[in-house]
Amino acid sequence: MAPPAQSQRSSSPSQPAGKGEVADVKSQLRNLAGSRAPGVDDSKRELFKKVISYMTIGIDVSSVFGEMVMCSATSDIVLKKMCYLYVGNYAKVNPDLALLTINFLQRDCKDEDPMIRGLALRSLCSLRVTNLVEYLVGPLGAGLKDNNSYVRMIAVMGVLKLYHISASTCVDADFPTTLKHLLLNDRDTQVVANCLSALQEIWSLGGSASEEVSREREILLSKPVIYYLLNRIREFSEWAQCLVLELVAKYVPADPNEIFDVMNLLEDRLQHANGAVVLATTKVFLQLTLSMTDVHQQVYERIKAPLLTLVSSGSPEQSYAVLSHLHLLVMRAPFIFSSDYKHFYCQYNEPSYVKKLKLEMLTAVANESNTYEIVTELCEYAANVDIPIARESIRAVGKIALQQYDVNAIVDRLLQFLEMEKDYVTAEALVLVKDLLRKYPQWSQDCIAVVGNISSKNVQEPKAKAALIWMLGEYSQEMHDAPYILEGLIENWEDEHSAEVRLHLLTAVMKCFFKRPPETQKSLGAALAAGLADFHQDVHDRALFYYRLLQYKISVAEQVVNPPKQAVSVFADTQSSEIKDRIFDEFNSLSVVYQKPSYMFTYKEHRGPFEFSDEIGNVSIGTESADTVVPNRVEANDKDLLLSTSEKEETRGLNTSSSAYSAPSYDASSVSVPASQLSELAISNPSVSGNAPQSSFAIDDLLGLGLAVAPAPAPSPPTLKLNPKAVLDPTSFQQKWRQLPISLSQEYSMNPQGVAALTTPQALLRHMQGQAIHCIASGGQSPNFKFFFFAQKAEESSTFLVECIVNTSSAKAQIKIKADDQSATQPFSSAFQSALSKFGMP
């Protein structure tokens, strides 16, 4: 029997037969180098394609570098392009090979064909090898003066590449000055656009502290340059128009007449077919009129129609980008868009991300005149087969109900949702009814009548179950079955995996106990016993807290857990006004699409130059007295002043030991007390004297759990008093900082209010001085700030020194404290933390 024939593998370029394939290609290239036979260029193309294909899939073809360079001696542009691609790829990883290409690239930069000159210059600048920058200066200088606009365009971008490789070489060759000349004098608009783009990036990379950089930026934003670009704007490509308009948005006109002149000149750009141009023009109009309230409102009216047209006429992706900007404008001025609410109705064929944004906008524009129509439309979406959109629709109805419009009709709609036999609809409606009752307690009877018919077994989502339990506890007097429903939930404590639900259950059974004690006594004991045995720290701590409250005095516990409540007037916004203003300043950028400022999603290296140092010895600190320290920001070099939080690891161990929380030590398995015993004891001592000994608070005395009685807590140390007029000169501060050891190092998380407040650090400095903690130096720029504080005891000259590093992007604050009196470090740390907490930081 003949052996089976072996399958022949295809010799496709993407799958070389073996290591010898590259050697075979190398041999063929060597044979073709210098050949002038007919059809040689076609043969070279096939071999070049093979090499590029191998390179693309990760095969090392650097061994054919010399042969590729020799075969590039041709006038065929396609071969040139493939050769330049190959050379650029291997030049980055092997600078020695890049040196071999310099001669033929410089030769091609002088070719008669402008296309080859441009391609060669682009490839030469793309080598990105520091040792070869000297070879770039000559070709770039010639390219900037080339008669062909394509070559000049490539040369302009080559200057930017050179600046990234060696800024000093670029400046020494006076290329930025040449770019400014081309910006104002070149006939080709694409060359002008490239000059503008390159100059903006060069000056942004130059740092913000340099006087030369500031002067060059002022030149770019001067009236002659702006007007020159605006007068030629119709000649530019769409991309270049966006670039010019972005620059114009930063321009500050001298008087109102100039503002109107600019807007009149750009009026027709609002009708442009390209959405990017329309958005860029919109930003110009909004930024120019910020100081003119009446005109600013008229601008909203003017830009509304073009933006709405773009939403309805573009692709879903474009619609979403434009809708994101409309969403920002609607949130700032909802009354202007209230009559156009029908533009925000969802279409059946729109993607869910577009629908979600439209639902948020419908919620924002709802008012007395359109609430009924909007809520009717939203209720239709609630029956949508798209479950996420149905959920968002129900939430939107609830948000409108909380805006104090026609509440009667909206409440009826929400209660109808509770009767729908869809789990997710019921879950969302329960959460909204809870918020509704917090704001409109007068609707409790109608809502409770419907909620009472819902079985807790049919509610599985944690937030919905927590809302139901909250209502059971809050309105246990009106809901006859509330104690028994809570009892059933407590019996299934072990089956409930959500800590949020268990926390609500503890609070609800406490409230129910104060209102209906005989029916809830047993359930309360079982809930506290289960909570104390819970492995989740928050649940355990809350159960322990409630237990000790009951042990101390039931009337006090009721005042704490179930005090008289006032209706909630306003619910907290998820974003502060400062964050919203920051997003508005970054209009026509990804910040609007992401709905967060750029520093929250960009890498540090893309936020501008920002370096740190580990010493403060080079800080330039003024000699002001402590009374005048509220400080003007110290004009110091950020490189000398600031330290990054990633570099502050030298005493991290102190942070761990000083801030760690020690949970009560006990064996959960020992909690075997019957719930009835707990219940009896929980209400057997309704009036405990406020002077009761500390041992009466020991949990084992009440439950009989066999736990060791915790020792009485140490008396709190006397409050540290600080000298509000403390004085410390900068030299003494630096000497003390170097000499004293670190007494305490801690890291805190900041809340959103603190992050937003730090957009203006002066507010923090004024606040801290009011707490007798004085700032001697500060510096940095968003998102990184650094502060040095000092304080002194009121009774003696003992001094405390503090280094506070804040990163608003990660919402972290790192603090180091040094003190003359080490024993006073902890009281001062508490005082410092308290001062920061009042400001909203840790």
From TrEMBL:
Locate the region Disordered.
1-24, 644-666
Q: Example GO biological process term?
A: vesicle-mediated transport
- Which InterPro entries does the record cross-reference, listed alphabetically? AP_beta (IPR026739), AP_complex_bsu_1_2_4 (IPR016342), ARM-like (IPR011989), ARM-type_fold (IPR016024), B-adaptin_app_sub_C (IPR015151), Clathrin/coatomer_adapt-like_N (IPR002553), TBP_dom_sf (IPR012295)
**Entry's Gene Ontology cellular component terms:** clathrin adaptor complex; endomembrane system
Residue intervals of the Beta-adaptin appendage C-terminal subdomain domain: 720-837
Q: Which residues form a coiled coil?
A: none
Q: Where is the composition biased (Low complexity)?
A: 1-17, 657-666
Tell me which Pfam families the record gives: Adaptin_N, B2-adapt-app_C
The record's subcellular location field reads:
Endomembrane system
* Keyword Transport part of the UniProt annotation: yes
Q: Which Gene3D superfamilies does the record match to this protein? A: Leucine-rich Repeat Variant, TATA-Binding Protein
Q: Tell me if Membrane is a UniProt keyword of this record.
A: yes
- Give the keywords, sorted: Membrane, Protein transport, Transport
Q: Name one GO molecular function term.
A: clathrin binding
The free-text function statement in the UniProt record for this protein reads: Subunit of clathrin-associated adaptor protein complex that plays a role in protein sorting in the late-Golgi/trans-Golgi network (TGN) and/or endosomes. The AP complexes mediate both the recruitment of clathrin to membranes and the recognition of sorting signals within the cytosolic tails of transmembrane cargo molecules.
Q: How does it assemble?
A: Adaptor protein complexes are heterotetramers composed of two large adaptins (beta-type subunit and alpha-type or delta-type or epsilon-type or gamma-type subunit), a medium adaptin (mu-type subunit) and a small adaptin (sigma-type subunit).
Give the family from UniProt: Belongs to the adaptor complexes large subunit family.
Name of the protein described by the UniProt record: Beta-adaptin-like protein
Q: Which organism is it from?
A: Malus baccata
Q: What is the lineage of its organism?
A: Eukaryota, Viridiplantae, Streptophyta, Embryophyta, Tracheophyta
